[in-house]
Design a protein that fits this description.
The protein is built from 21 helices and 26 strands. By secondary structure, the chain is α+β, with helices and mostly antiparallel strands. It folds into four domains: about 80 residues; about 210 residues, DNA primase, PRIM domain; about 190 residues, 3-Layer(aba) Sandwich (Rossmann fold), CATH 3.40.50.300; about 60 residues, Winged helix-like DNA-binding domain superfamily/Winged helix DNA-binding domain (Arc Repressor Mutant, subunit A), CATH 1.10.10. The longest helix is centred in the last third of the chain and has 18 residues.
């Protein structure tokens, strides 16, 4: 049986007054026990026991500046004749405060024993220890400030002296000012000074909070299983947790302390961040401060080392969802999210639009904003009506707003639901996406948006664009937006350099392949190579021709969509005149360029010239013409058709009408 429970067994509840009964309950709660321990012990006094009273009192115990600990129970038992086992000097006192039923607890110690145990726990005999007792001065506002103090005595020397003078701690460390208390440095020094550069072993860091009640501090440190080498009551409103960080260098120390403080902050523990330096002073146990004890509350609490604690910390920071068997969903599979863009994108999913520069991607995204806001089709694909945020990272705000107006005007569409489009102009204010996401999520709280469109992502990209790991971390930010807002996230990216027509759709986006493989839908737009005849037809309109191809995760891939970009709109090619046009950068595009390199008039002149050169006997074969002109027989037949029967084909030969 552990020390506290053994001492409690010796106490008779019926022999204690009301105040001591309350102290027992407070001590048990402070040490992490369950209320049932106090309730069961109290029920042994049937004359005064009232069911439910322990639980009611337990809830009222909120802690105090000087906490009531298990030592109070031990002391009450000792005063009534109970004796604990005698402890040898080299015995190690250990307990895991996170458990409700610890294997062992701290016994009552004299002040000198507290300091000896503190030194034995934190230092090796040859380590130089820094401390301050009477070398302190008072500021105008009443605060006591420690000076340099002593730094040239070893832990072994101090322990030997403390053992020699157990009843006079001042004989070893010097008398301290009763109003100020005393301080001690928790990391070993070189015996030459007390600055950071004099620290030779970066074993420990100080964790302290002045804003949380004492009992809450202790409870959180135990709950988070900090690897505490020593826990000291400051004599005022905080406890000092000397936490093992086991660093090999000052640089590693700084990183580990930063991680420790950030971890505590993420779990609601508000610590004093000014305690980062390894030469920091903490409160010396065993002395008094304004009549209050700077008391050693325990040693070797929680995890045994930094590495051991990191296993816990990584698990505590694990916010991954739980696992479940597929059979759980056999009868009631989860409902699929609604389709935001029919056959392309579901609500809460991600979509990437990639294309070459100046392809009108921003116009296309603005058209998508309008399509969602008004609930109309986009490039022929129906859209579910909803609110959409357009994050403008590239375009001048005035230009961006005017573009929206021009698109509405060109669509000849009444702006019935323009309020469904929110615009966040961040040109000149862009920050990396991992910094932007928390701000974005905070501003969108309760907005009930359907989609967020980020244009373009190169403005907020983090890491190396060609690194798969960097881009995976970057794309995870889009998942955070989806998860925390429920919105679909749509973003655009540019093509890599060089011809794209010969590449697969999924491989055209610049940088790592993560860009194309991460989103649930990738749409890629590539410019088409037009025949000169078609170019002449659209020259006055200034139109360019494009093809959109896809790679979809949730739906079957759709047939490529051909469309024109004629400022400020993209229009689907309903005439199918672009169907046979190859994408720029394909092998067919080069042939097409040669095939239609001449205007119709020039082509006829070229045809007649070739015919006259080959007409030696009144007939010219198709093969003769294809060899001479360097084109296919289909081209020859196409030109014959356009020349209105002036030349005829007979028996594989071309015969002029006049012959």
């Amino acid at each position: 049986m552990n020390t506290i429970l053994s001492a409690l067994e010796h106490l008779r509840c019926s022999e204690l007054d009301h105040a001591d009964w309350i102290r027992v309950g407070m001590a048990l709660k402070s040490e992490g026990y369950d209320v049932s321990v106090w309730d069961e012990w109290s029920s042994r006094d049937p004359a005064r026991y009232h069911p439910g009273e322990c639980a009611r009192r337990w809830r009222s115990f909120q802690g105090s500046d000087v906490p009531v600990t298990g030592a109070s129970i031990v002391k009450m038992a000792q005063d009534r004749g109970w004796q604990r086992g005698v402890m040898d000097w080299n015995d190690v006192l250990e307990y895991d405060g996170a458990r409700s039923d610890p294997d062992s607890q701290e016994p009552v110690r004299t002040p000198t024993e507290e300091l000896i145990l503190y030194l034995q726990t934190l230092f090796e005999p040859g380590d130089y220890v820094g401390y301050v007792t009477n070398d302190a001065w008072q500021t105008d506002d009443g605060r006591w400030v420690p000076a340099k103090g002593v730094y040239y005595r070893t832990a072994g020397e101090l322990i030997e002296s403390l053992q020699r003078y157990p009843d006079d701690m001042g004989a070893t460390v010097g008398d301290w000012k009763p109003e100020a208390g005393a301080w001690i440095r928790f990391n070993a020094l070189d015996g030459k000074g007390v600055r950071n550069e004099n620290v030779v072993k970066f074993r420990y860091a100080l964790v302290e909070s002045d804003v949380m009640p004492i009992d809450e501090q202790i409870l959180m440190y135990r709950k988070l299983e900090l690897p505490i080498a020593a826990l000291v009551h400051s004599g005022r409103k905080s406890v000092h947790a000397i936490v093992r960080v086991d660093a090999e260098s000052f640089e590693e120390y700084r990183k580990r302390v930063t991680f420790l403080y950030d971890f505590l902050a993420s779990h609601g523990v508000k610590v004093d961040t000014q305690n980062r330096n390894p030469s920091r002073l903490s409160r010396m146990p065993g002395v008094t401060r304004n009549g209050q004890a700077q008391k050693l509350l325990g040693v070797n609490i929680g995890r045994k080392s930094w590495v051991d604690w990191m296993d816990f910390a990584e698990g505590a920071a694990d916010e991954l969802p739980g696992m479940s068997p597929l059979s759980e969903y056999a009868e009631h599979p989860p409902d699929l999210p609604e389709e935001l863009i029919k056959g392309i994108l579901r609500q809460g999913h991600k979509m990437l639009i990639s294309g070459s520069s100046k392809a009108g991607k921003s116009f296309l995204l603005m058209e998508l904003c309008i399509a969602i806001a008004e609930g109309i089709p986009w490039l022929g694909f129906p859209c579910k009506q909803g609110k959409v945020l357009y994050v403008n990272l590239e375009i001048d705000p005035a230009s961006g707003i005017n573009r929206f107006m021009k698109i509405y005007e060109a669509m000849k569409l009444p702006a019935r639901h323009m309020e469904n489009i929110l615009i966040w102009n961040l040109r000149g204010h862009a920050v990396p996406l991992d910094q932007l996401v928390p701000k974005l999520v905070r501003r969108l709280r309760d907005q009930r948006l359907s989609a967020i469109i980020i244009d373009p992502i190169y403005k907020v990209i983090t890491g190396d664009e060609n690194s798969a790991s960097d881009m995976a971390a970057f794309c995870n930010q889009f998942d955070k937006i989806c998860n925390e807002t429920g919105c679909s996230v749509i973003y655009c990216h540019h093509h890599s350099k060089g011809a794209q027509g010969a590449k697969r759709t999924i491989d055209r986006a610049s940088g790592s392949g993560v860009f194309a493989r991460d989103p649930d839908a990738q749409l890629d737009m590539i410019e088409l190579e037009l025949s000169e005849e078609v170019q002449n037809l659209v020259a006055e309109r200034g139109a360019t021709a494009w093809r959109m191809e896809c790679s979809l995760r949730e739906f079957r891939n759709f047939e490529p969509v051909d469309f024109w970009f004629e400022y400020p709109l993209h229009r689907v090619d309903s005439s199918e005149s672009l169907r046979e046009m190859p994408a720029q950068g394909t092998f067919d595009a080069g042939k097409l360029k040669n095939k239609f390199s001449k205007s119709t008039e020039n082509a006829e002149r070229e045809f007649r010239t070739a015919y006259d050169a080959l007409n030696l006997d009144g007939t010219v074969t198709v093969k003769d013409m294809t060899d001479y002109l360097g084109c296919s027989d289909k081209t020859i037949y196409a030109r014959l058709k356009k020349m209105n029967g002036e030349y005829i084909l007979k028996g594989g030969r071309i015969k002029h009408e006049s012959i």
